[in-house]
Every structure is written in C-alpha cells, then in structure tokens.
Specification:
4Fe4S_Fe_S_CS, 79 residues, two-stranded antiparallel sheet, Alpha-Beta Plaits, globular, 15% strand
Length: 79
Amino acid sequence: MAFVITEACISEKAADCADVCPVDCIQEGDDQYFIDGDLCIDCGACEAACPVGAIYYEDDLTEDRQIYLDKAKQFFSHN
C-alpha cells in the first residue's frame, strides 16, 4: 500500500481523490474513501487533490494514524 486516507475524510467524502486517480484504486466505504494498495501506482494525484488533507504516504503515517492503514486493508479484504 502506498497512500492511506485518514480521519479527515470521515464523513467528508469529497471524492476529489477518486476523480483524479488514473487506476481507479479508490473506493467509497460507509464513512470514508479507501485506497486499494494492491492497485495503487504511487502517483500521488490523490494526495494533491484531497481538499481536507486526509491522504498520507504510508511511510509518513504517525503511529496514531496506523489504524487507517489497517482499516483500508480490512475494507478490501471484505470486498
């Protein structure tokens, strides 16, 4: 997984990130969008487009935001 959508997206769901993704790896969940790390090509378009600053590169996640990586993995394991 390259990029992760974090707490600023919860209930915001602006979808700007999904609109610019060239490989359609961003899907809408119940409360936020998620990035499929198996499909992501690390282009960074989503990070630049996010109006609420919710997207971080996986290696830049703080410890308290690691839960969003786990949440995304869980989302895609059930879809």
